[in-house]
Design a protein that fits this description.
Elements (H helix, E strand, L loop, with lengths): L5 E4 L4 H12 L5 E4 L5 H12 L3 E4 L3 E5 L10 E2 L4 H8 L8 E5 L2 H4 L4 H9 L2 E4 L9 E5 L6 E5 L5 H9 L7 E6 L4 H13 L4 E4 L2 E4 L8 E3 L7 H10 L4 E5 L2 E2 L10 H13 L4 E3 L7 H10 L4 E4 L11 H9 L5 E5 L2 E6 L8 E3 L5 H10 L7 E3 L12 H6 L3
Parallel strand pairs: 1-14, 2-13, 5-6, 9-10, 16-17, 20-21
Antiparallel strand pairs: 2-4, 3-4, 6-8, 7-8, 10-12, 11-12, 14-15, 17-19, 18-19
Helix pairs in contact: 1-2, 1-7, 2-3, 3-6, 6-7, 10-12
Length: about 400
């Protein structure tokens, strides 16, 4: 391959790393995780689990994980910006008859936890939220045995369900989980896949799964690339003025590496369909594709109707609202209509230098970084370091293209 081809390196999967960290922390013996994500969210979870008794030793290509006796510290566990960290750890409150306190940054305190808190209360956990109902900080205190069933509304986030599933093998008795209105269903499948990797016993039932109690051994696991971020790399490849190769773990990226998620294949298919005239896409199951698909519509000057996106308001920012506001600076018009967002006018004003505020949302900062490859003026991005949440070294990769 010619040496003048730019090589863009995909980051490791944050979502898989966080699920592996939870499972290894609760395992009966040590584990080794190869190629983990060291993004800010994963670092937050590592530090939090350390306070709960797990020992982590970083090695050249991974992490040794030594599960310890579970303990709840007297002081609140700080989760920084990590909503996944807070939600996954909140489920740990079901494992001990002791109080567990969690807190976080101002951004995290605005993220919804109400559905999970309601589930915990139904399970006998006393939930105290001294600042704002349904949000951090919180004090969680289990008062009785876990019930035999949970009914989980996943219309805001699938993480509430995943949090419970990941700890369910540690309960004293079998528990059946039923869920409805799932968004990001691929993440539920990922959670169940990770549980199966660790030999957790569960069986499918109509509308849910039944998880059986039992210990499981630690194991050696190999992480995957973050396929939810692959679409940004693909658009960088498409929009760059120089040839770009997408890589993972120092090798050319191969789609068959994915065991749990298909965003790479879905986005490539949708991108082709968009370029050939398709206008409507439903993103309920794949909300992470909203920013790159919208960006593709803008660059290709296609009017779009992106459906199944109302839950995007509960992400790191209200993504639809923030993008509508910031894209208006370029003359691009979005209309938010209930559960859909329409790209009404994809044409942008040429040559104007613009500063944008992605509201500390990592995916929106990446959106404008890739947009800058084709925009004829200069785009200045506020709080651009927020990309560390999921893609460490993102700006080093971008500098290769400039």
């Amino acid at each position: 391959m010619p040496s003048d081809i730019i090589k863009i390196n995909l980051p490791a999967s944050k979502s898989l790393t966080q699920r592996y960290l939870i499972m290894t922390a609760l395992a009966a013996s040590p584990s080794f995780l190869s190629f983990p994500s060291y993004c800010a969210d994963s670092q937050d979870l590592l530090q939090a689990l350390t306070k709960l008794g797990t020992v982590f030793k970083k090695q050249a290509v991974g992490i040794e994980i030594y599960p310890g006796k579970l303990k709840f510290p007297l002081q609140p566990v700080f989760c920084r910006d990590g909503a996944t960290t807070a939600r996954f750890l909140a489920a740990f409150s079901l494992l001990k008859l002791e109080p567990l306190s969690l807190t976080g940054s101002l951004q995290l305190k605005a993220r919804p936890m109400e559905e999970l808190f309601n589930l915990l209360e139904e399970a006998g956990v006393q939930v105290d939220t001294p600042e704002k109902a349904g949000c951090l900080p919180c004090r969680l205190h289990k008062t009785r045995a876990v019930p035999a069933r949970f009914e989980v509304d996943c219309s805001r986030s699938s993480q509430f369900l995943s949090a419970l599933l990941l700890v369910a093998s540690q309960f004293e008795n079998p528990v059946t989980f039923f869920w409805s209105n799932p968004v990001s269903e691929a993440y539920i499948k990922m959670t169940l896949g990770v549980m199966a990797e660790f030999s957790v016993v569960f069986q499918s039932v109509p509308g849910g799964v039944k998880v059986f109690p039992g210990s499981y051994p630690g194991k050696e696991i190999t992480n995957e690339p973050d396929l939810s971020l692959y679409p940004f790399a693909l658009l960088a490849q498409e929009f760059s003025s120089v040839p770009v190769e997408i890589r993972w773990n120092n090798q050319p990226f191969q789609q068959h590496w994915s065991r749990f998620k298909q965003e790479d294949k879905i986005f490539k298919s949708w991108y082709y369909q968009l370029c050939t005239g398709r206008k409507e896409f439903n993103l309920k199951a794949t909300p992470d594709l909203f920013p790159p698909l919208l960006l593709a519509g803008i660059v290709k000057k296609r009017q779009l109707c992106l459906q199944g996106v109302s839950h995007l308001r509960y992400k790191e920012s209200n993504r639809g609202l923030v993008l509508a506001r910031e894209l208006a600076r370029f003359g691009i018009e979005l209309k938010i209509r209930g559960d859909s967002i329409e790209l009404v006018n994809p044409d942008f004003n040429p040559g104007k230098n613009i500063q944008v505020d992605p509201a500390a949302d990592h995916r929106l900062a990446m959106f404008f970084a890739i947009f800058s490859l084709v925009y004829p003026g200069k785009i200045t991005i506020a709080n651009k370091e927020c990309t560390e949440k999921s893609w460490p070294g993102f700006w080093e990769e971008m500098r290769k293209l400039n």
